[in-house]
Amino acid sequence: MTKIAVILAAGSGRRFGADTPKQFLKVAGVPILELTLRAFESAPDIDRICVVAHPDHFADVNLICEKAGISKFRAVIPGGEERRDSAIAAIRHLSSLPDDSIILFHDAARPLVSQRIIRDCVEALSHYDAAAAGIPSSDTLWEVDENRLIARIPQRSRFFRAQTPQAFRLGTIRNAYLRAASDPGFVPTDDCGVLKRYDPDTNIAVIDGDPANIKVTFPDDIAFVESFLNSKKSIDSSNP
User: Edge to edge, what strands does the sheet with 48-53 contain?
Assistant: First the structure.
């Protein structure tokens, strides 16, 4: 069956505060998007790569893929204003594929995703309806009321911080998004949220993520990614 990585790169990066969307900024001389694409290019479990981007950046995406030699790259798809709009655009683009095709949604701004995470997400679909990377919450969580007063302190051990990739059978996530399209009041922040809301009986497995698999959101995150890459390069050079 076909396994497709959909790289979500249509965000404007407003929280980052730069004129250029963060996924096109460079770390150690390499665009963040390129680092992300390389990870999926190297993954044996991935057959194709599609990128969802704003039309203003189509040329940037194509140039990055060409220069980096991303042989699995198949298309750049126009994204929407919200994440769900971009996901729906990708699903529509892939509509000719069989329902049992595997689709992995991944944030373009998570360049440090590991081969192990990608593999585990794909393999989990042999046993579950969907799978996503996540890490246990290391902080106590507070649920507050409308006055910002603590209303409840849930058990921390049951909470995970969501990461990507998030993996689905194409038919499963397409059906969930079709239902979401008729509910304009629902604005999901991830694809598992869509599936769980509109098909609550599905089993979504949380596979082990990695603290290094951060989403570049603020300028300090650039320094973390660069430090991680330098450390990895140093380790690789000392172990020929």
Answer: 73-78, 48-53, 3-9, 102-107, 160-169, 130-136, 204-208
Q: Across-strand partners of 205?
A: 131
Kindly write down the DSSP assignment for every residue of 201-236, as one continuous string. Answer: T--EEEEE--TT-----SHHHHHHHHHHHHHHHHHH
pLDDT digits (tens, 9 = 90+) for 182-225: 887 777 778 999 999 999 999 999 999 999 999 999 889 999 99
Strand-pair partners of 55: none
Burial profile 84-106: b = 16 or more Cβ within 10 angstroms, e = fewer:
bebbbbbbebbeebeeebbbbbb
Give the C-alpha separation, 62 to 72, whole Å.
12
Report which of 45, 72, 66, 56 is spatially closest to residue 23, judged by C-alpha positions: 56
